[in-house]
Write a structure and sequence with these properties.
six-stranded antiparallel sheet, alpha+beta
Length: 162
């Protein structure tokens, strides 16, 4: 009788796990931006050239700056939710510059967001197009993983039905 209870419990557990949310291990925006741009993420921005910022995702920030190369995408080590609601942000870097590599930070009144990488672009359009391409890649990978998981679930259900 105990064997039957354990068997039912194990079957129920695996049924719940297989039907739960899909924990897809997608490549990060940082990894995909490195691949798309062929940059190492260690670009630098002079703080006095920064004219504005915006959010593409909780860990991808766009920066517009004056100068020759005027647009940047910054990835952070952590998700920085407060940047979406903050009216202003500060930047903390050495020697009046922000550089990719983890030493510098974007600051809001609520949190400190360590900068992982900075990618440099000639224009806003190029940066946006690159981010959109990376977003499509992530969506396709997520979709493929969900389809694969569904196929695995279906084959398990077919095996148990036999």
């Amino acid at each position: 009788m105990n064997f039957f209870k354990y068997g039912c419990a194990i079957t129920a557990f695996f049924s719940l796990v297989s039907c739960s949310n899909l924990g897809v291990n997608l490549p990060s925006y940082d990894e995909l931006l490195r691949a798309q741009t062929q940059q190492d993420g260690r670009s630098c921005i002079r703080q006095h050239n920064i004219r504005g910022y915006g959010m593409f995702d909780d860990d991808v920030i766009s920066i517009s700056a004056s100068g020759k190369n005027r647009y940047y995408l910054i990835t952070t080590w952590l998700k920085c939710h407060s940047l979406q609601t903050s009216f202003s942000a500060g930047f903390k870097g050495d020697f009046s510059e922000l550089c990719g590599g983890g030493r510098d930070k974007i600051l809001t009144s609520e949190e400190s967001c360590p900068i992982k990488s900075i990618f440099e672009f000639e224009s806003k359009e190029e940066a946006v197009a690159t981010f959109e391409k990376v977003e499509v890649i992530r969506q396709n990978l997520r979709k493929e993983a969900k389809q694969k998981a569904k196929q695995q679930r279906d084959s398990k259900h077919d095996d148990t039905a036999k």
